[in-house]
Amino acid sequence: MQEPAPDEVSTGADAAADVLARAHAWLAQDPDGETRAELRALIEAAESGNPAAVEDLEDRFSARLAFGTAGLRGALGAGSNRMNRVLVAQAAAGLAAYVREQAGLPPVGVEAGSHEDDADPATAAHDGAPDDGVAVAPAGDEPADDAASAEDGGSDVEEPVETDAQAAGDARGEDHDAEAGVDGEEPDAEEGGGDSHDAGAAASVPDQLAGPSAPELTETPSADALEAEGPEVPGILDDAPIVVIGYDGRRNSDVFARDSAEIFAGAGLRAILMPRLLPTPVLAFAVRHFGAAAGVMVTASHNPPDDNGYKVYLGGDDDGSQIVAPADAEIAAHIARVAEAGDISTVPRSLGFELATESVVDEYVAATAAVAPAPAGAEGLTWVYTAMHGVGWETLSRILETAGYPAPVPVAAQLEPDGAFPTVAFPNPEEPGAMDLAFEAAREAGAELVIANDPDADRLAVALPDESAEGGWRRLTGNEIGLLLGWRAGRLATADGAAPASADGTGASLACSLVSSPGLEAVAQHYGLDFHATLTGFKWISRAPGIVFGFEEALGYLVNPGTVRDKDGVSAAVAMLGMVAEARGRGATLADLLTEFDEQFGAFASDQVSIRVEDVSQIARIMAALRERHPSSVGDVAVDRIEDLLDGVDDLPPGDVLRLWLADGSRVIVRPSGTEPKLKLYLDVRGESREDAAARIAALADGARALLAEYGG
């Protein structure tokens, strides 16, 4: 093999030195003992010439996880290209800067003198009346520098949120158990939860914080505690924007949430930490419930066990929806500035964040139970539920009791949160084998249906008995569930015979992503509702004008937009139970509902063909070839017209998507995956019967595979 030129050797050596320098800088600021030990071992191995360690460091530090409309998501571990406490601290500080900027506040540390009164507890005292939704976490001295203490062998990575808060209070010699909700117990709201606080401590939060969308605090931090935080921490500002933080049961979710709450509070924002691990939809609900400027959910949803993520919502005009452009780029720019500063230990932190009380969960439970109170047909219903090792069961079980549904047969091995996901290799109900335990339980119980949530309970899977399926059970596709729930929404929106309208008074509409079944448009037309096809993702679906229902084929459903502006697998489960119970009351089954839909709206069938690539540039080449030389047919069916969403179509934002309409009414949509190195083709047909649709979709899938092969796939 030819030897590299000297300048190439130098370049390679320089690159390796640069990666090592980045790794050392990261190590110096990492507050986590586990990831610091991991990184130190890699550095030592790389410096001793281990090529595998060098390659690993390059993967960890040659890039950083990009912040976008999905927030952050990646594998846990040390480095800028992993999820860890350094990256999360940078993200939290960047989001805090964005929230301050949007509120017209100066950056932390700028014109600090003009906010001195805000940080002075004596000038901001008020009566501290009990509230209906928030308790205050202990505020006071920062713990000893995390990085320094962790170098001595300490690490709080495994500590739960409440224990951390308790430890912080104990270090100051104060008893904060009642305020912090230690061991999961909430303070008694009627008693104010304040007996454990120093009797002489003055209340310290401005009256201006109490408003119709921001409940008063149940108890305020002590004046001594806030004063001890030091001049670099601005304290809670008058009319401070609110940021709500939630977390699920994945590894380090609680730690990342606690770090974020401290950084938001340290930036002078009103940080409200959810009381315990909860489903993502409860956090989305809380953003609106508290009138928050922003919300953060620490979750990787249904992704692999070693992943975690950071999902951001915005309040105000965004009404609790996920972020979209330009907010994503603006937040990313703030995060980049924090990262460039190079040391998260300089980011101000405060223990003056608040803990939401159980009332916010109670409100979500009540609103979701009202989606579909149990009809008479629910009595005696036998069904199976799995939480997929996630956080859905506790909340759903309360809703079932409130709404009057019989308890399910649980998949016990998957019912409680477990970030190791021991019974599934990939905790996604769409993945082969993920619902095997649920099907086993259903066969043993003679169940009528199976319902599954993904680990953060924002998605819903449903299965029904089917003798033709392997094992006797078949999982419905996301489109089948979406069309049934859309049918339900259409009936409800027009039930009183009046002109249908949404909660905001605009014309009521059904919405789905453009790659989801066109059957929803047929439902909308039948009921005289507006219809909107959006770009993929609930960040777009939730913003459809007049939306009363929305879905995406990847098991996401929005059935109660007046409560949650995001996909919600818990409320969708209740809506599905309502449909099944109503049908059951007239002697029909879930399978009968599918047949009835076909008879009324037509038999729609969908499929997906995709290729996974090693080199992502291959995807760009295929897309470019399709644009340069349009296909004349897919299989034996002629292409009628092609729409290129890069040019903008139907008021959709530009996107790297091609939509092919075929002469027989079928549709093929080609788009790169937003999360994986895949090119996806979404296929949809409408047949005269279910059998006809099945034959059409099989032929179209064969044609799509041939098309990919022809264009370089």
Structure characterization notes:
This protein is of the alpha/beta class and 713 residues long. 37% of the residues lie in helices and 16% in strands. It contains 22 helices and 23 strands. The strands form four sheets. Strands 1, 2, 3, 4, 5, 6, 7 and 8 form an eight-stranded mixed sheet that branches. The chain has a six-stranded antiparallel sheet with strand order 18-23-22-21-20-19. A hairpin with a 2-residue loop joins strand 19 (633-634) and strand 20. Helix 2 (33-47) packs across helix 3 (51-61) and helix 4 crosses helix 12. The model is unreliable at 1-10, 112-132 and 138-219 (pLDDT under 50).
List the topology elements.
Blueprint: H1 6-29, H2 33-47, H3 51-61, E1 72-75, H4 85-102, H5 116-119, E2 134-136, H6 146-151, H7 161-171, H8 177-180, H9 223-227, E3 242-247, H10 253-266, E4 270-273, H11 280-289, E5 294-298, E6 307-314, E7 321-322, H12 327-341, E8 354-356, H13 359-369, E9 383-386, H14 392-403, E10 409-410, H15 436-445, E11 449-453, E12 460-465, E13 473-475, H16 478-493, E14 509-513, H17 519-527, E15 530-534, H18 538-541, E16 547-552, E17 556-558, H19 569-585, H20 590-601, E18 603-612, H21 617-628, E19 633-634, E20 637-644, E21 658-662, E22 667-672, E23 678-687, H22 690-710
Parallel strand pairs: 3-4, 3-5, 4-8, 9-10, 9-11, 14-15, 14-16
Antiparallel strand pairs: 1-6, 2-8, 5-6, 6-7, 11-12, 12-13, 16-17, 18-23, 19-20, 20-21, 21-22, 22-23
Helix pairs in contact: 1-2, 1-3, 2-3, 4-10, 4-12, 13-14, 16-17, 16-19
